[in-house]
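Mods, move this if it's the wrong board.
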Amino acid sequence: MPLVLLFAAAISAPAQETPGQRLELTFFGSRTCAECQQIKETVLKPFEAQYTPFFSVSYRDTEDTNDFRLLSAMEKDYAVTNPCPQELFFPDTVLCGYADIIKRGPQLIEFYLAHPEKWHSPHVYTAGALDKVQPAEALQERVSKFTMLGLFAAGFLDGINPCAIATMIFLISFLGTQHRKRSEVLTIGLTFTATVFVTYLSLGLGAFKILSMMTQYYWLSLAIRGTAVTAAVVIALMSIGDAVKFYRTHDTTQMTVQLPKGIKLLIHSVIRGNITNRQIVIGAIITGFVVTLLEGACTAKIYLPTIVLMTRQFGFRSLGWMLLLFYNFLFVLPLLFVMIASAYGLKWTRLSKFTQDHLVLMKVLLALVLLALAAFISVGK
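Not the wrong board. Structure tokens:
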């Protein structure tokens, strides 16, 4: 039936509407999601304005617990096996992901508008049924869909990147010259590691919050994502180049992706100036804080693309922050191991030799992780 005839017939219908008398869709997205805002403004709201009162959309926020319960229930009924940051539910089908909704959404809405016999939905969601949906279990299932292996690789490799390893080597060598007792080395090492964790996590939370706020502006969000993808690809190629150079020359001074010499010297100065203090806990805290900030120029090459990916993949901030916490634990895990091992006799020469022997592999793995992050950010759902 042509749309004009359909609407003409609907005008004579009773004013009181019942389910099935209009096309009702349900859209799930996050208030911090740029793509979600773009879908609303370019696809859904124009149709609402043009076809009122025959078409309406229920906008749901995945950061709201009740809306998330509804999303979980609808995904189960519609057999959604790969959840997306954005999902648009029709009476008997669903579009998943920004690209799918932008590409197929307008045509599918027009198809349903032209076929009012399809407006009635067979799915009913009562408050009692939704109360049975446990958000914690639903979140756990959703996290399992995320590439946890990739997140593990990114966090762990960030912790063993040459910048962090170089700082570890100098710290261990310096502690060795101090002839400190094992208990003091453990105290310094654990305090230093804890401070690095808290500082790095704070930097990540700040970046996560800023990126979440910026995603409300679609073009700015798009520019940030494009910058992250470009930087990840460029640094990945530079890391591959470093691997080739070191394989041929075994000279670390020829590498491109490393801390500038001035920052290295500043880090060494910070370590010397604070670890020698009698107040070793305060000294370790100051050292860990300052060193983490200085290392950020190097370690951010994986950290920031990962944060951009998480802000895009997960609209609900609590889940994104939980994954960020896990990432930071993986980041300090190598440092924690080295600090404990140094208290029990690990020499900086052994760590330096191990790093030299595996530097090519580390550089290649770093490049692969960065390329994978770039791919997920640019083409992932």
